[in-house]
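Quick one:
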Amino acid sequence: MLKNRLIFLTDQAKKYILLGVLFRELGLIAQIVSVFQIGDILYATIRQTMTNQLLYRVAAVCAVCFILQTVSARMCAKMQAASVTDIKRNIREQIYDKIISLGVSYREKISQAEVIRLCTDGVDEIEAFYEKFLPQLILSITAPITLCVFMAIAINVRSALFLLLVSLVLPVLAYVLMRTFKAARARYYDSSADLTQHFMENLRGLPTLKLYRADDIKAEEIDREAENFRINATRMLGLDIAIDGLIDVLALLGSLAGIMTGISEYIYGTFSMTGCIMLIILAGEYFLPTVALSRMLRNADAALTLTAQIEKFLALREPLYGTREMNVPRLYSETEEVVLANMDLYERPRFLKKSAISYTLSDVHFSYDQGREVLHGVDMILPPESFISLVGPSGCGKSTLAEIICGKLKNYKGEIKVGCEGRSMNLYDIREAELLSHVVLVKTASHLFKGTIEENLRIAKKDAGEQELLDALDAVHLLTFIRERDGLQTQIEAGGANLSAGEAQRLAIARALLKDAEVLVFDEATSNIDASSEEYIMNVIRELAKRKTVLLISHRLCNVTESDCIYVMDNGLIRESGTHEELLLKRGIYNQLYRTQKALEDYSTGAATLKKSRQVLQLSGALHAGTAADRNYQKIHQSLMNFAEEASGERDSKEAGEKERRRNAPVLLAELTGLVTPSFYIVFLAVLLGVSANICLIFVPVIAGNAVLQELADLRNTELLSSPIARHFQVMALLAFLSVLFSGGEKYLNRDAAYRILTQVRHEVYATLRRLAPSRFEKSDKGNLIRVLTADIDRLELFYGHTIGPVLTVLITCGILTFYIWQRHLYAGILTLAGFLLTGLILPILEARFSVKSAETYRNGLGQLSSFLLDQLDGIEETQQYNNADAVKQELTSHSVMLAEAQQKYTDNTGLWNMLRSATVYLCSFGMFFLTLYLHSKRFMSIQDIVTCTLVQMFSFQAVRSVSDISADIGRTLAGGERILRILEDRPDVQDVSEAEGKLGWDGYKRFHGAEMSRVTFAYDKDVILRDFTILLWPKQLIGIHGASGSGKSTVLKLLLRFWDVSEGSISICGEDIRNIATRRLRDAESYMAQDTVIFHDSIANNIAIGKPGASRVEIIRAAKKAALHEFILSLPKGYDTQVDELGYRLSDGERKRIGIARAFLHNAPLILLDEPSEHLDSLNEGMILKALEDECQDKTIVIASTRDSAMRACDTVFEMNA
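Output:
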């Protein structure tokens, strides 16, 4: 089985693993030789035959062994690091390649959270398997054999063989016991994965949850899941401790039995007394590698489980792709036919590639994973150089059909023929890359990647010149926008978070145009774009249709009237087809949709009255779409401010302040330790048990050594079991048992305290993020926040479970042992104290201090990798479509290489400190022997004191070493702790107002009397959005805010919700400044629907119920009916109980939007704020929703922010956002 799981083991890794084991073997041999030197000296001392020549020889050999052991420790660390240099990169690349081959359907097999976990911390666990477990597995076999050979030659054969046999049995027993409780371990891993997934999902939707005051319920759910995880973890811990305890007892008893075997040989005259002493020292070395291996088996099992998951994922059957080439001719039109919105401004043509490609669809069916059938037999023809449109109600299957045509969805039934120059072939037979090179799909919310505008555009065409990029931007009316910023180098956040929805969509269309593909599919591509930009883009699309195959999916039927053919789809079937005029004459579905939408356009005040209204209600102060002069003024002003800061030293002081925010290691340790207070009594009891365990364990060999010296001389030719020494071994067996029992209790209590603390930390972090929402999430890097909520918190388990208690335990143990040795002689006590201080305090503190920076760099690199992966996973369709997988893979490799370099620096640092610890332990252990030997020569110590002090010093370092080993990873832990503390200390942009602090008697959440923004100035990231802006919202009216994309409409709604406080001016609701209103009452007074509706992995009913936690099913159904969603829900197999998949990606854009509208209706607030509510909706559903809004405004105030004219026709008053 192990061989089958070593799928990532390379030849290079094998070489370095074996070299690492070789260096560890050399260090072991050096240690064995050193012990033999002690035996020689001790023998000479007992026999009183000590000579200077012997002393010099032993000193020289020990010096050589010291150098060899130190160098071996250093080289072993280097070999271990080198063995996994490429493993993590290979794993990430293989996972990404698989995701690319699966496309967006990968979400059906594995969640985004799981992908990110596998590529970050999961890869680290697998890396640890290759870096630590495999070498330890080999060493657990070679080390006992090496010891057996040396002991059989120099000490005793029977004892050596007995110890070898027992040591090799222990790992097998540990593995059998571990596999016996596999089910319990699986429950533990499942609860951990569920907790991570739930954290990630709630983090995405936290702004929505907080606005609807549903974050309390979700926080309780997370607390319950965290408690469930703690219970499962504690149960698993109990099983692990029981297994470890059994292995430890067997190891100790095996050591004692081996020693007894040697003593029995002494009785019969085949063994020397010094041989017995060396046997006591080396007997424990037999079991150290095997016991360490037993401890690693759990982590190895976890790594193998992860490897199996990855292997299973990599083995998933990929969609079937053909191998045929389309052999599309390179046809170009004449220069005078070039499609340009402003032909006279350019001297050369653009987007010239003509299409010779046609599609013929016959009886096409499709369903998602044996779920409900979405397409029931579609027939359609897409001729070359044609303008074809596809219309129909929301959720009828239009987007599904578009993805099938573009090759994104496979496993359809029926036939799709792709024709080219008189030839035709089945869509299944065409090579994927070949198909994608000729087809492009622009969806409603096409993903924009984090980077510059130029980088986002070059995804479509790597070798595009700067003028080509500008041409594409001009075709979508974005040239002015980028010139007002940093041109093509304007930075974009992941998902276009710092752009308006319209700006982001136009940039996505520009990217598609730049590809210059023969077949263009636009799926609601202009749904969230203002009217002027939409008309501009539609002119481009119509011109493109003269030389390309164009399929337009749109709910705005005014955009399809000039189509060569319009297909009308309903419930997965093509119901009608023909030109606009032909379909109107049929008086069918299209006629009904068109007439309804036309009526909406003439709705309410009518065109003439509306024009007059807009002239009267012009808004000033919207600067986002303002003039270039305003932009230049802001840039000049900011430059002057920067110059003033530099001249006055303010900037330096700011940078210094940022550096001061980073805590040094002692301060960070103190602050993290302060979180232990609630579980102090548990930690205190654990420390007492730990000290008792250490004392019992250390004095087992001490008693054995003293027994040998005191009693062994009188044992010749006597019965061993009836001799006095047998009683000593009974005491040692009892101490060994008590040591294991106390140690198990200590581990259990320490880990239980850690789990309790981590549960509280999760609660506090999520509570802090709730306070920071929603404003923090408008600009935060969610990938890094996800790491804080998952990996960084999990890493603190090392600190609370393996650091605080064990450190206190070691400090107390060292104090007791130092006092014990000091009673023998002052100098011996000083050396003991020095060794403990160096290995248990000074070196760990220095390591933590000097490694925290490199560890933080590594943890930040992991956070950046998480953000990058999240960004790329969200944009996987774009990566596939533009054949950009190789470039993304290179960037992924670059992240992996940078991460590997940071880890290499951290590992080198750790290796250096490990070498210093190993050298210190060696010097102190053998230094104690030579010091006591010297004191014995001066008559200050007896031989018994030499043995006692030496054994105490040697075996006490086993306890100290556990803390020293922790310090090797403490840097990463502290780096994660620093990130968590920063989150806990972060202050929200807007402080919540409590009920006591809020205005008494304010009843705006019951009776809305109006709202006003008066002379408001607001800047976002130094970018002024509104300046001297004023607007008045009257009660019980349907009010529209209309304007171009990026004019500040969404910002107005968010300011009314108090996402941020304004720089100048005031915002009042019902006559009271919004800053004086209790936050709870403000949330009760307002409903809000954002442009992007967050869907949770839950039932549809529970997704809607977020708007009103605890709502009855009757209330949910009523809200769904108002949002024109009820009939769609009833068509699903389980109705309102139908589970929505991750991110709701199987729902159409319109269906997701209507769930958001239903939430707003369900919230039942007197003021409803809707951002693009009719986006992605067909005219019938839009009409139904607008009618519902009109009915609602009889006792509510509704504000609609939209670029769509049709949404404004229903409004009583329309405000036009202009500069």
